[in-house]
Structures are given as structure tokens and as C-alpha cells.
């Protein structure tokens, strides 16, 4: 039976409510190859029961209530100041949520370290580092956590990854939290990862304070995860076992939006394709007929994909750029490279569109007589599966709406992609967005957004979402019934490290990693 058939059956089997935590703990062994063949064979030969109805990410809508409430906001610029209160539209202060006294403990702790977190955020913002080069951020964040009594593991599986762990009491569940650190080429922290870094720290410290004051046993693991921007750092850490003991994992991400708002939207699955055309040079005026023009092949492929867009769904995205070396107007290019991103709302849809995009590249090679090599150097990114138990009314959404602001785009689809999507396939996870004030046309990955990520307003928003997120995480540790519901929702939405492994391998295989097609002679090795 083919790998595709196995994957489809695994999707059905995973919907039967198996224990996600146990599978996530076995994930590193499965990915390493242990027991993978046995489990895959069993899945392919078993006729599963009909799957549970998968939760629609667009079906659950929460209308914000237009009232006012308190909003913790550290005034001032870079210095710590007493928290201020002011009314916020779209908030209902009368909504009930889990253990308000615990939220008060969390909020007091995060407010107490707010000034230090502000300084830490600005330090990271002023020292932007690209993927897998986050040495400064690694050092300042681990120093911060170590000074507060956390057990810190530096260079955790990857050179710039790290883990900080806190344990209280005997037994209990394990909560994971993520801090991102990397910046973008040329435009610095234009995706606000300085805010994500300190938000993860705030969540972890808030949960720790509540565990100590209210004597709640359990374990918190804060992961510093490198290379979200194009390096799939979390996917690598997932394969290496960094997430295997977690019962749930949390993080948040800034974006432009209404003041004091948040979102619980999904993200698109993504695969990167590197395309290289090889031709033959000739003088462009004297003997052009002797050449095979690699740039023509690339331009033709670009045009082919423009035509393809008419026949793909509006929720899909295919976009790319040209790259070349030593081009001159009077020399027909013998090389041309392209970098393409393909995105779709789900892994299954991504699997369907990848071969169609590949056909555009191969057709151009055939038309121009060039060779084409199609590869993918990074892990595919999976669509983001928000855990609906972690995000529903009595968890994150209700806490945030009752204290800080409206929830927008609940369980809808966003156009971006993240390596945290891979984590959401392996264990229960939540990834809310939070809005920060920006200039017009100042969305993510712009210089204006980089400036906005350093403002006091952005810092206040990061602390607000951290308080709500910390209470959700604390409830995973404290409320056994809630933890069971979280696991159940995750299993219904498909959470399996084996599935993650197989789907990732299939996508890389679909992309033709390492394969070469010759325009005149068919396929060749390479």
C-alpha cells in the first residue's frame, strides 16, 4: 500500500481519540525509526471506524461584548512604572473564568517584572540576529531565567536553542511554553520576535509564581526556539524530542489589529522549493542558437505558475523570487535559481498542489532544453491546529475578553505560516495572536512593524496576552478534567508524531528533493 494510503488511514485512526501525550512522548523514537514500520503496517492493514467529526476552525465564533474593563498597561517608555487601569472597548468584566485569584497572582508577578522584560525586549530588538545565529538572544534570555532560579540547559539540541525548567511538588503534568528570537534579513525584528521572546518568559514566570503561592504541582518547560523565519527550528526540535514530555504547549505572536485585541486564527501549511535551472552559455548576439537559456526557463516557469493560480483555490498561495549568478546582458545565462513557497490551509491540500507546481518547473525545462533540479532544504510547515479546549470561552478567550479586549477571527484561517504548526500536530497547543498599534501599511515583515515592536504599547499588549495565556497553562496543571478535555480535543483534531513524520516525509518526496529532470532526456540522478 502506498505512503499516501497509509497517511490517509493514519488520519482516520488518529481521529479515534488516542492519548496524545503518550504519542508525543514516543515521537522522538518514532521519528528515529523505532517502531515506525510496525505502526505504519498496522495502520495500513486495519479498517478503522469512521472518524469523529473534526472540529471546524471556522464554525466556532465568539462575538465580543461591547463594555469596558481593566487593562494592565505599564506606562512610560523604558522604565518600570506602576500598572495603570483604563477602560477597554469590547470587554465584559462580568464574565466568569477559572480561579480569578490565580490570575491575580499571575498578573502581579508579570507586572512586577514588567520593567525588566521591557529592557530585555529592547535589548533583543536592538541586536537582531538571523535564523540559527541568535547567540546574543540565547545568552541574555538564559541569563535572565537562570537568575530567577530556573534550571537552564543552554544549546539545547541546537546551538542557539535553550530550555529553562521549573518543577514544584511531586508528579503533576508538564506545561510547555515557547520563546522565539530570530529576526529578518535587512529589516530586523519586523515580525516582533522580541515580543514573543519576553511573552514566553512572562508566561513561564507567571505560572511559576502561581504554582508556588497556590501549591499546584507540576513542571514548566520554557523553550527558546531559533529559526522560525525560514529554518523550521521547532520542527527540528520536535523531531529531536524537545517536546516529548509536554501535556500542552503555548506561545503567542504579534500582528497589526484593533487596539487591545487578540485572535485565534489558524496558519497555512507551507513547503519551500528550491529550483535550479542549468543551461549552456553563448554570445547573445553572435551565436545564441548554441545556448540553452536558463533564465528563459525560470521566466517561463514564473509565467506558468501565474497561469496556474487561476485554477487553484483562493485560499492557496504560490509565490517566489529569482536568483542568479554572474549574469550579463551579452551572455546567455547558463544558470538560474528560484525560491518558491507553496501554502495551503491543510497538509492534505498542500499535498495536492505541490505536484502541479512542480509540473510548471518541469515544463519550462522541457521547453528550453535545460536541466532542472527541485529540492527542499527545510522541513515542511504544517497548518496550525489551535486546541479548541485551550482557546474556548472558559479558557483563553474568556479570560482575555473579560480583562483585556476583544477576540477577533476566532478559529479562522490566516495567510501566514509557522513552524509551531508542526508542534500542534504532535500535542495540544495554543498560539493566539495579539494586536499592536502600527502605521498604515505596517503589517508583519515591514520596517514599520519593526518600529512598532519596540513601542511601549506593543510591550503592554505582550504582557496582557501573557497573563491570559499563563492562566490557561496553569489550568492544564491544576484541573485534571480540563486537561482530559484538552487531550480529547487534540486527538479529535489529529495529533500524532508518527503522522507528523510520515506527512513531512511525503511532502519532501512530493517536492522531488534531490531529483533532476533534463528537458531533452527525461529524468536523471543528482
3D architecture notes:
- The structure is a single chain.
- With 526 residues, this protein is an alpha/beta fold.
- The chain has 17 helices and 18 strands.
- The longest helix is centred in the C-terminal third of the chain and has 23 residues, at 456-478.
- It is elongated and about 80 Å long.
- The chain starts with a helix and ends with a strand.
- Residues 1-95 and 513-526 have low confidence and may be disordered.
- InterPro entries: Amidohydrolase, Bact_exopeptidase_dim_dom, Peptidase_M20, Peptidase_M20/M20A_hydrolases, Peptidase_M20_dimer.
- Pfam families: M20_dimer, Peptidase_M20.
- Residues 274-364 form the Peptidase M20 dimerisation domain.
Identify the strand order in the major beta sheet: 3-4-6-5-7-15
CATH structural class of the largest domain: Alpha Beta
Assign an overall shape.
elongated
Structural class: alpha/beta
CATH superfamily of the largest domain: Zn peptidases
- Enumerate how many helices there are, as a single number: 17
CATH architectural arrangement of the largest domain: 3-Layer(aba) Sandwich
The quaternary organization reads as single chain
Query: What's the rounded overall pLDDT mean?
Result: 80
